[in-house]
Amino acid sequence: MGRTLAVVVLCMATGACVGPTRYAAPGSFSLSVTDNPADKQFELVLNSAANAPLCLAKETWPAESGVPLGFDGAVLQTPSGSRSLQSTGSAYCPGGCGELRIEPGRSLRGVVPYRLFGDEGAIGAEAQRTLRFEVHPWLCGR
Fold it and tell me: Please, are residues 123 and 114 in contact by the beta-carbon 8 Å criterion?
């Protein structure tokens, strides 16, 4: 009886820790993308308006100093057409590459250089540049 109770409690505790991912509601975060032609890059700021910490997979967010290996979450729109991000390699991490955590009311910053879409001089010469960037934060676990 005691062993059965222990197994039941262990299973319940494990089930409470492992559950479906709860993605953040659209109003609980905002993303701003600013074109910085002087530095030939786009600057991203993800702001949290959530009441709990938000998380992102490291491989889905560009680093503050550039794009990490394996990142592919951006498309550049210009008058001459769309440009996909050039391959930055592979980011395979057994079990995941880790998480970035954003506390309530805080921000996460990153940059996407023009050169990652091809010739940065040609991109800089475009009359207009818009970066489409999707982000899908979730509510962090405990």
Answer: yes
DSSP string spanning the chain? -HHHHHHHHHHHHHHHHS----BPPGGGEEEEEEEETTTTEEEEEEEE--SS-EEEEGGGS-BTTBPPTT---EEEEETTEEEEPPP------TT-S-EEEE-TT-EEEEEEEGGGGS-HHHHHHSS--EEEE----EE---
pLDDT grade for 38, boundaries at 50, 70 and 90: very high
Sign of CA dihedral 91, 52, 64, 117: positive
Strand partners, 31: 46
pLDDT score for 70: 67
Q: In the sheet that 54-57 helps form, which strands lie side by side, from edge to edge?
A: 99-102, 54-57, 138-139
Give the largest CA-CA distance in the chain.
75
Length of the chain counted residue by residue: 142
pLDDT digits (tens, 9 = 90+) for 77-122: 999 999 988 876 666 778 778 899 999 999 999 999 999 999 999 9
